[in-house]
Design goal:
The protein is α+β, with helices and mostly antiparallel strands. The protein folds into two domains: 234 residues, Jelly Rolls (Sandwich), CATH 2.60.120.620; 50 residues, no CATH class. It has nine helices and nine strands. The strands form two sheets. A six-stranded antiparallel β-sheet has the order 1-7-4-9-3-2. The longest helix has 19 residues. The relative contact order is 0.17.
Length: 323
């Protein structure tokens, strides 16, 4: 059918037309039905670009650990990070390490799916990587199954997810290579799994290097142990709705140079369109935040539902300044 700009659906109509143009209708159907979807290599990004992303990630791993990593032999370093694991470590705070990580976050296919789940004003929570090597135990019999929605948040998990996750696979994912584990349809349970629950229903996400996996934050997922030599590499991009605190804070570290070099949506993803958390005695910059959001909406080709409100705020501030 033809999707219109219907008042009752707000930005969803124009967003859906973008989703259709990108060929993602099947993917959102899979997200709704099963809680996850897989974009094959070359759909979200050229395989050569993903190879460059992997190479840059290996550079970061070597610089932080002092050890050159090898995806074939499994040579790897170690990091004293939380939580500690015997079978892997986590590379945190990757967004500002290189422009390629910013390109990953701003990927239009990724953002279309995350926006569908979380809204245009969603935030990037973290940009990390799990560096995983051979270990027969891994997370153990529970497979580390969990949902990404914070357990301690006062809001109930609910039907509509508060978070969404995604991963560029930087090596081939198979059962023996330590693939992601998913429990299809578990996003509908709207709760965390009990210890050990769901492991017997978990399936491996088997997909080649270059694939993009996107899943609902309510989805029960974990990982199978890696039983082969070599390394399993991934770039994990975790998002949340605007009202949740992100895991990683980039608001105070991102430079204007980085913002200027990327789509305007990046500023929204990093929380710069939210006037709260000010660090001055003047108070919140409502007009600046509204302008940041409006610029991102305009560049994305989506209607800004807050446009009249933003205009009123800017006018009120101007009136106050004039006395």
């Amino acid at each position: 059918m033809e999707v219109g700009d219907w008042k009752s659906t707000g930005e969803l109509g124009p967003l859906y037309r973008q989703i259709r143009k990108l060929g993602l209708e099947q993917n959102i159907a899979e997200l709704d039905a099963f809680g996850f979807t897989i974009l094959e290599p070359g759909k979200a990004a050229p395989v050569a670009w993903v190879e460059g992303l992997r190479d840059k990630l290996l550079e970061v791993a070597e610089r932080r650990t002092g050890v050159k990593h090898d995806v074939v032999t499994g040579e790897h370093g170690h990091l004293d990070v939380q939580p500690p694991f015997k079978h892997q470590y986590i590379l945190y705070y990757l967004l500002l390490e290189d422009p390629v990580f910013q390109q990953a976050i701003c990927n239009p296919y990724l953002l279309a799916l995350q926006t569908y789940m979380l809204g245009f004003d969603c935030r990037l929570s973290s940009c990390t990587s799990f560096v995983k090597w051979r270990d027969e135990q891994g997370y153990g019999p529970t497979l580390g199954l969990h949902a990404d929605t914070p357990v301690t948040h006062p809001l109930p998990i609910g039907k509509d997810t508060h978070t969404g996750n995604s991963a560029f696979l930087l090596t081939d994912y198979t059962l023996d290579n330590g693939a992601l584990a998913m429990v299809p349809g578990s996003h509908r349970y709207a709760r965390q799994p009990r210890p050990g629950e769901g492991a017997d229903a978990a399936i491996p996400i088997e997909a080649p290097m270059g694939s993009l996996v996107v899943w609902n934050g309510n989805m029960w997922h974990g990982a199978f142990p890696r039983k082969t030599d070599g390394l399993r590499l991934v770039l994990t991009m975790y998002f949340n709705r605007w009202y949740l605190y992100p895991q990683e804070d980039y608001r105070r570290t991102v430079t204007q140079e980085v913002l200027d070099a990327n789509p305007k949506r990046l500023a929204v993803l990093l929380g710069l369109a939210n006037p709260n958390m000010w660090d001055n005695v003047q108070g919140p910059d409502f007009a600046g935040a509204a302008q940041t959001m409006a610029a991102a909406y305009e560049e994305a080709g989506l209607p800004n539902p807050a446009a009249p409100h933003a205009t009123r705020i800017a006018t009120d501030e101007a009136d106050l300044a004039a006395g």
